[in-house]
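Q: What would this complex look like in 3D?
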Amino acid sequence: MDVELLAIGTELLLGQLVDTNTPYVAARLADVGANVFAAHTVGDNKARIAAAMRAALERADGVITTGGLGPTVDDMTRDAACEALGLESVLHQPSVDAMKAMLASMGRPERDLENNLGQAYTPVGSYVLENPNGSAPGFVAFDARGKFVASMPGVPSEMKAMLAERLIPYLRERYDLRERITTAVIHTIGIAEAEIDRRIGDLFATLENPKIAVLAHGYTCDVKVMAKAGSAAGAEALIAPVRAELEGRLEGYVYGRDAETIEGAVQRELLRRGQTIAVAESCTGGRVASGLTAAPGSSAVFVGAVVAYDNAVKRVELDVPPAVLTEHGAVSEETARAMAAGVRARLKTDVGFATTGIAGPGGGSEQKPVGLVWFALALPDGRSVAQKMNFRGDRNAVQTRASIYALGMLWKGLRL
Amino acid sequence: MDVELLAIGTELLLGQLVDTNTPYVAARLADVGANVFAAHTVGDNKARIAAAMRAALERADGVITTGGLGPTVDDMTRDAACEALGLESVLHQPSVDAMKAMLASMGRPERDLENNLGQAYTPVGSYVLENPNGSAPGFVAFDARGKFVASMPGVPSEMKAMLAERLIPYLRERYDLRERITTAVIHTIGIAEAEIDRRIGDLFATLENPKIAVLAHGYTCDVKVMAKAGSAAGAEALIAPVRAELEGRLEGYVYGRDAETIEGAVQRELLRRGQTIAVAESCTGGRVASGLTAAPGSSAVFVGAVVAYDNAVKRVELDVPPAVLTEHGAVSEETARAMAAGVRARLKTDVGFATTGIAGPGGGSEQKPVGLVWFALALPDGRSVAQKMNFRGDRNAVQTRASIYALGMLWKGLRL
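A: Here is my prediction, written as structure tokens for the whole assembly.
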């Protein structure tokens, strides 16, 4: 079954409200194997809503709408559906009764029904979708070819319940939807999207089920494997060999699967080794510590951190030798190594990690530009590793990117 | 000018990603008085993207797309625009140079350029949109009628900068967009939305230009004042008296205007007093320090922080007396006060601030449930202030809310 989605509401087109209904409906439809090839948003305008419905029905088996079913004059979906399908509307008595009961239960007068009665009309011949969390019904209405317009309220709690309990069961039955899409995710760090493409592009181009997609987020990159199957076991059977192949080709860069995070991967590596960590931060200002404390259970491995913004703190709390600071400067390989070693010794952990750099906008120079960050990792055997990076962007971008990079370097460095 | 928006990406139609680009672009277009009558989403399919572009150009003066400009085979927007407009594509040499410079600055080999070179192609005759936060350009390309397809990357940081600095100025010039909506924002903290409503509800109901809106974000609340005018000066003349009235009614809760942040307000208060600060964090794990180092120039007031996750760190690095920890526990008023005083003394600052609490999911008890957080502020005159809060939600929600609450308490506490 091919469907298109239509979100209705002028506030969506003014950018005053983010449309979370469309991705929600799309995800539930993907779960049952329906194809969503397009989604649209139009304002509270009957002619435009009807035109969007008709255009969608030219391309797909049906269109599923959210919003515009309320009681006010700018709620146009019902009338637009009648216009698009060439149908009259008719009063749905069970919905009138439901509204009466709801008003009574809220202690509101019967005359309030008048303002809401419009909501009880549905296009002739509709399959009515009762509203588990409200009084106004949705509907599935049909054109002469049997193509459908299914309309649900825009209030997320009402829409979600109606979708799950009424519309999805109806569509599964009518369109014999037995297959569903299961998505597995492989998380990578430290490998460019273009390099991933070079390594797995052939699978990308040839595989149909499961399909592969790559999603880049700065220093991390997700590879998604999407399988269509009639059961969870069937999906896993399709996914497993492809995931194994992909993980092989991306070896050394894969830090986790599905809901796993880079901070969780660092924590797991430390737990596996029975090691603890402490962090010394300058330019990242607490963001690496924030990352390491985000995963539940972090207190088992994370002991603490020193944010040494001022050089005096680097000297006094991290025992960075004054000579290192004066000879090499605060942003240098030597200072980074001394900070990592210092925090490891002071907080008595197995591993120490440090960042020092120039987040900007001020403080840069020709030799040490804004965006330069030194990272150092002090390992349990006394060795230390240092790296530098030049990050682009404003202060926030440099701080954020440096913190994610730090977690990636930690994850890789722990396995040295 | 009438435009339609087109978001491109299969992951959007699978519901794996919420499209925040469309509302963002829509809001910026509303600001400059452009009409957005429809928005669409299609997957990474060249024919469908091209068809959506052509259909939009039948209805509007132009279509603005986000996404699908990346370097991989599933990035189809460039080719689709050429197909929709009947144009060839051509290499844009300045973009090639920008990519080379970026690769060099990241220390990546020149051969990586090959994988990215496709991004430097734009439709013949395009107005090229340089990418302030990346290397791949966007473009505005035209059909024979002068209607346009404007394409920007899907990465929000790149899209936002390109929209503000390149596309909007271009469209304002070309379409003579003179009337614009100017939005002034009044930021409050520590006052409930319902109380704001009680204080300003009358203005809310009666004002037309400027209009007022209230937007709650947890512990902070923004009041927006939106004026429609032909010039910035005209807008300011409409806004100024209303803003003054609102700030008067909300006195004591207003920490800033427009782009100002709570962390910036704390920094300003410290600068005004010539005071420095140090922070001791337990459950917030570095998030308060992250907030205090987010604003440019923070090194003038922020000296450093100690993230004391382990109790040993509280004792050794913050001089919290062992008796306080054993008698009252790590999550207590006494420990919070001792941490604040300890970090102030150790880092030799005027002000010390501390958090200690239970972020969960583990570690809670009947007396000290998950979500309980103690805050303490050690002032220059030796006084200290302590407060406790019970935050709802999961670990991430508790950590985030506690950090924002901390900044608000700091801002208020500094003025005691």
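A: To summarize the key features: Residues 156-175 of chain A form the longest helix (20 residues). The longest strand of chain A covers residues 180-189.
Q: Very helpful, thank you.
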